Fold this protein.
Amino acid sequence: MRPEGQWDAAFLSREYCATLFRGFGASDNALPDVEERAAAFQRDRPDLPLDPEPEWQPAAVGG
């Protein structure tokens, strides 16, 4: 989360939980090729940084 970003923590939390719970509810064969599709996505975009951690900056939390 970027404090100056357009999405606040509450929005991101709702989206994350909705995605997670939809995934738990999916059958085992809902996305049989998801791993292959993810690998192809990465392979087709070698310059796209898919790991956000290198760009993370410490942020003060609370008051």
User: Anything to note?
Assistant: The CA atoms of residues 19 and 25 lie 10 Å apart. The mean pLDDT is 81. Helices lie at 9-25, 34-44.
